[in-house]
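Troubleshooting: if your tokenizer reports a length mismatch, compare your output against this known-good record of 311 residues.
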Amino acid sequence: MSNGSTFPPRRRFGGTLVVVLAALLAACAAGWLIWRSASGHGGGRPPKALPAPSPDTPGEDTPGKDADGEAGRDGKGDEPGSGGRAGTRLKGKIVLIDPGHNTRNRDHAREIARQVDVGNGRKECDTTGTSTNDGYAEASFTLDVARRARTLLQAEGAKVVFTQDGDRPYGPCVDERARAGNEAGADAAVSVHADGSGEGNRGFHVILPARVTAGTADTSAIVGPSRRLGEHLAGRFVALTGSAPANYIGGGTGLDVRSDLGGLNLSRIPKVFLECGNMRDAKDAAQLTDAKWREKAARGISEGIADFLAE
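Known-good structure output:
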């Protein structure tokens, strides 16, 4: 029929409707996917939770946890080898560090030569110590390494007590060095030294207390724990410095036992001496005079002590 008007073809109207409906469905689908992603719902798994912020550092991840809020690889919230959460591993522990000798001892020969009780005999109050062939004093070395070790131990929460910090005219005497650890109630003590043996004698060794029950000395209670402290110390020292156990004492074990040292005989707490190397050997002296190596030595000391205290 024709009356001068025409109707739009029905096919065109239907095509437009289909396009509109398809656009609406696509928009709805996209909106649903965005909501699903933002709310954490995906694959049938629960939403992914962010780590709780540390109370000390808002907005930071919890120490010892990864980005998923899971415990570190050792399952205890600490990365292995990291020394645990900084400032807490050694909290409540007291460590005595004894920097051997004193740079001013040489100016007080009479005072350090006087005899003091070492439990099973009498010996000099202290000695000047040794030095490298170029004149680098053992006392300077021991104080530097001790201070570095103190920094590392304090960073783990330990209270560190020194027998001397370059603040005395001489000494202290060996009996006073032992007494300092006893009076502090220290959990462990290490006396830092370097040896003065012959050229060609290389490496470190740890001196352990022998069983001494004589006069004012009684080491029976500390012989066992002191050995464990020494073993931990030797193991860490090897690993962190690359230095080998002494080739001239200790039979390759890095351990030696002595009964003539007042600093050990008079101790009531686990204590050892560490001879970090031989200052009279050119190769050892090159290490001992290297600040980077001394930092490694300090780390070996601090980690060895921490291992012992974590038993």
